[in-house]
Every structure is written in C-alpha cells, then in structure tokens.
Input
Amino acid sequence: MFPEKIKLLESQKLLRKIKDKSSPQSRVIIIDNRELINFASNDYLGISSHPFIVSNAIKILEIFGIGSGASRLLAGGVVLHNELEKKIAKFKNTPSALIFNSGYSANTGIIPALFDKDFLILSDELNHASIIDGCRLSKAEIKIYKHKDIEHLKKLLKTENKKQKIVITDSVFSMDGDIAPLSEIYNLCKKYSAFLYIDDAHGTGVLGNGKGALSHFNIRPTSWIIQMGTFSKALGSYGAFLAGSKDVVKLTLNTARSFMFSTALPACIIAASLAAIELIEKDTSSIKKLWANREKVASALSDLGFDLMKSETPIIPLKMKDIDAAIRLSDKLFKKGIYAPAIRPPTVKKPRLRITVTAAHTDEDIERLIDALKTA
Ligand SMILES: *Cc1c(COP(=O)(O)O)cnc(C)c1O
Output
C-alpha cells in the first residue's frame, strides 16, 4: 500500500526530501553543514531577520506570550490584530481588511466563503495550488482559462450564463515569475460585470513600490475587486490578508471556515508584520535593490543561453528538458555552494530550476551563481 506508492514516486523521480537549515533565512544558509548561497527564498527584501522587525516582535512576545489561545471570533485576537487590519486597508487603499493565518488558509477560506453555487469562477490555469483547492471547496461552477489568455477569458465571460462571474488570478505567478495582464483583465471584468479576485502573494512588497500589483498597474480598488496577499514572502513575516469592501470582509469573517475554526496568529507575528509594512513604507531602497539584482541575474542568465520562460519578476525559472536534467543541475549547483532547487510535477508541468533573487544578494553572490551555472 504505502510502500508501493512511495516506490512509484521514487521511480518517477518525484520523491522529495525536506532540506532543513541550521541557519536563519538569509542570503547564505547552512544545510547539512554546508554553506550555500540561497537562491530559493521568497524573503525578497531580505528583511526576515531585520533588527527593527525582530525587536518589535520580541517586545510584543514578552508582553503577550506565544500562543494566542483561541480563534479571532472567540478570544484569540488582541488590539494589534485590528491595528494590522487597519494598516493593511490603508496600505491597499481598501475600506476593510482581514488577517488570515496563511496564504493557503486565506485562499481555501475566502473563495468558498464568498462564491457559492450562484457563481461561475474563471481561473487562470497556472493559479497557485491554494486557489485551486479553494475553488474545489466552493460550490461554484469552475472554468479554467488558458494562462493569461485574454481572448479565451473574454469568450468565457461572454457565454450566456445566469451566474455571477468572478475572475481569479495570481498577480505574479509563483513558479513562472510572469505578471498577469491586470489592466486587460480589469477592463473585461468591468465590461462584463464580473468580480475580480487577485492573489498578490508575490506582488506585495515587490510591485508598485511595495504596495502590490494594483498599484503597479494604477488600478484603483473598487467594491468588485477582492485582494489577498501574504506577510510571508517579501514582508518577511508570516500570515496573510484579505483586502476589500466592508461587506466582503464582514461576510468572510462570518463564513470562511479557515478563519472561524483556526487559532489566531500570535501577537508577536502580528507585531512583526506591522513593523515590516512600516519599514517598507519608510524606505523603498530594498525594493530598488531587489529590482536591480533581478535585472543583473536575468540578463546574465539569458546571456548564458538559458530559457527564462516569461519571467518578469525576481522569480526566474530556468527551463529544463526533463526532471532528471533539473535534478542533476540542482545537485551540481549544491556541490558548488549554490542552493537553487529543482521544481517538478505536480508543482509545475514543465520541470525547471527556480531561482529567486533577493535584495540581500551581493554582486559576488550573483557572480558565483553565474560561474557555477557556466561550469555546471
Ligand atoms: C505562497 C503562496 C500562497 C500561500 O501563502 P502561504 O502564506 O505560504 O500559505 C498563496 N498564493 C500564492 C500565489 C503563493 O505563492
């Protein structure tokens, strides 16, 4: 039973191993006593150990302790939770916001909470697994449109259907690093009176001077746009948020099961997220550094002849011909002190190395990556 299934995964080269670090998440990490330059982190701004964030978290940790003890609807929240929600609403320019325990629990909670059998969901084929699972949990009808294919999306929006339509898309696609054409999608949603749900996990802190994808595209939030994003990536903290109208937040907090039936995030994590937003609002130099580093890496990799697929962001995939090639290259890099993991099905259809660039990388780190890839 289980052993056979494990063997099957192994024979397909799909058996993964957890590689834990004995160091903080940083530009250099230690795995199996080996020092590696880290090109696998979503801590894009390199702030997860920032002294301002850490000291704020410690201060609150000492006051409020670790466990929050209950869900938000019981007695799990403290005033900081509400302060963070107000801060997010202001940051995202929406009337209201709600904290979730993770991006995964946000998407699997919000989507089924808001979209029931009266809805038709139109979902990009490369949307994150948490969106796919959220859709599966909802009673809505689901149609998948081809990746970023505006014509296909338009055709689906045009089809006669009594149902209320909703378009769901990642803002930045987490494995391909390309950006959804949000201006076109926004215009279509407006024209066909559809809702728009965007997952800004990799846009928050990265696009639009940190404010995210809508800001990047100069799209003003409206009552029919629902945004989620995470504190766990560029903001270097943990957890997620919903940002939208007052009604959307009110309905979600009363119906999203992952919100209602799960213990609230600890106050010290909330304090860290608050500090992270303050930090990037005050000083956008790390965002500028991130993009400068991204350009350096992307141009050097294309010069080497790699297929970066359609990457436009600090997420840079290197397309490989098969799983074997991806694993072999990743292993070779590991031996040369570079951490860049192979990504394989079911995470992606096309095997690849996924390189993430951060603001913390030095020119020397980037040179070492390029040299290692040259010789590997
Ligand atoms: C990482 C990610 C999530 C999940 O967020 P977590 O806070 O890690 O659970 C959701 N959506 C996208 C697009 C992501 O990349």
Remarks:
- The chain has a mean pLDDT of 96.
- The first helix runs from residue 2 to 11.
- The CA atoms of residues 85 and 106 lie 14 Å apart.
